[in-house]
Amino acid sequence: MEHIILLLKILMINLVLSGDNAVVIAMASKNLPEKQRSQAIWWGAIGAVGLRCVLTFVAVLLLRIPFIQAAGGLLLLWIAFKLLYDNEDHVGIRAETSIWKAIQVILVADFVMSLDNVLAIAALANGDIAIIVIGIAISIPIVVWGSNIIAIWLHRVPVLVLLGSAILAFTAGEMLLRDSRLGVWLASAGEVLHAGLPGLLAAVVIVVGTYRQLRARHI
Question: Membrane-spanning residues where (predicted)?
Fold first, then answer.
């Protein structure tokens, strides 16, 4: 049951954080004939799965270095807040007329834009390679094939973005606690702070996100 919940978290994180990737995929392949468009999307998805797995493995190794995991936690917390204020601007992506060029654009874009996904998955899985591979293999094809649907969902159901941001903030708190150096200091600061930090960060993100959504409705 714990693994199923973890997979659902990874899927949710990928869906929420892959809005940019979905738009890039749609733009890069939109000028291709229908058959080639499907091929470009699927080959891009397969390449993205392999690339994301390699990057996540590297992240898992790096997160074992003292203070690197703490720095990653702070970065993930920043990403959680950034997600609430994302302006969804996408520029500089050219529609390609060759299937191989479209695949190259998809892979390069996924590499450049995957820092948040990779960091979140590495932190959530906490070194469980099987969960990492399964989570990425399930979520990326869903993202690339359903890119338009995902974009509509994220726009029409803002609570999905809020939930994704809360998961990121909670994971950031866990990363801070797991850091081999900072975690010891936080543990010495008190049991309440140590146990409640992830939940506190998630609650702050939910409050900020809810306030922003309510404020947007009244403007």
Answer: 6-28, 40-61, 67-85, 105-123, 129-146, 153-172, 192-211
Contact 197, 178 (CB under 8 A): no
For 171-201, give the DSSP string: HHHHHHHHSTTHHHHHHHT-HHHHHHHHHHH
What is the residue-wise DSSP string for 134-148?
HHHHHHHHHHHHTHH
Other C-beta atoms lying within 10 Å of the C-beta of residue 57 = 16
Q: What is the mean pLDDT of each run of 10 residues along the chain (219 residues)?
A: 80 70 66 77 77 83 84 86 64 62 75 74 79 78 65 72 86 85 78 79 92 76
Nearest alpha carbon to residue 163 among 11, 59, 7: 11
Between the CA of residue 166 and those of 55, 145, 172, 196, 215, what are the distances in Å? 24, 26, 10, 14, 19
Q: Dihedral of CA 4/106/45/131: which sign?
A: negative
Report how far Cα 210 is from the mean position of its chain's Cα atoms. Answer: 20
